[in-house]
Amino acid sequence: MSRRQSFGPYDLAERIGVGALGEVYGAVARRDGRVVALKRLLASSADDAEVIAMLEAEASVARTLDHPSIARLQDIGVVHGVHYIAYDFVHGRDLRAIHERALRGDGKSAPERVPLDVACSIAVHVAEALDYAHRRADDRGRLLGLVHRDV
User: Fold this and answer.
1) CB atoms within 10 A of CB 116
2) What are the helix and strand counts (H, E) for the chain?
3) pLDDT for 62-90, tens place per residue?
4) How far apart are CA 42 and CA 83, in angstroms?
5) For a designed S-S bond to 93, which of 2, 65, 97, 104 qualifies (C-beta 3.0 to 4.6 A apart)?
6) How far apart are CA 84 and CA 41, in angstroms?
7) For residue 66, what is the DSSP state?
8) Nearest to residue 11, comparing CAs of 22, 23, 24, 26?
9) Which pLDDT band, with edges at 50, 70 and 90, does 20 fall under?
10) Residue-level pLDDT at 99
């Protein structure tokens, strides 16, 4: 990771992504050196009670999930009025980068699609994680009714 900026107990490195409500950084916990994906709300959402409640609800649900294809919740907090949530950092390329590289090709041959075995492996892992989340129940056996809004 490149030059770091301090954010509470973390050193932020590269920004991985940004959306309407928040941004995600690769970050390192200064306490133990663990690498995390840290999602923090944008300044425009910092005082929005509904957005803060959504982040807290996400953390509440994430605490209950334990599956090899779901990043584990590590931390939730507030730094100088900015709410954040931190998950295990999953090393590797994101699906968009894999797809774009396949479309670009190697410069010597025509662009290709993502290899079928790679696409199938990704689809299986995503489907297993979604199935786990959709079947997640509370301690009384009632389904939680989880739906991933970004898939």
Assistant:
1) 8
2) 3, 6
3) 999 999 999 999 999 999 999 999 999 99
4) 9
5) 97
6) 6
7) -
8) 26
9) confident
10) 83
| Identity at 129, one-letter amino acid code | A
User: Of 46, 42, 38, 44, whose CA–CA distance to 16 is shortest?
Assistant: 38
Dihedral sign from CA coordinates of 133, 138, 141, 147: negative
- Rounded distance, CA 46 to CA 9, Å? 19
This prediction's pTM: 0.83
Distances (CA, A) of 106 to 15, 36, 68, 102, 111: 27, 32, 32, 8, 8
The answer to whether residue 150 is catalytic is: yes
Question: What distance lies between CA 121 and its chain's CA centroid?
Answer: 19
Other beta carbons within 10 angstroms of residue 7's beta carbon come to 16
- pLDDT score, position 60: 92
State which amino acid sits at residue 139: D
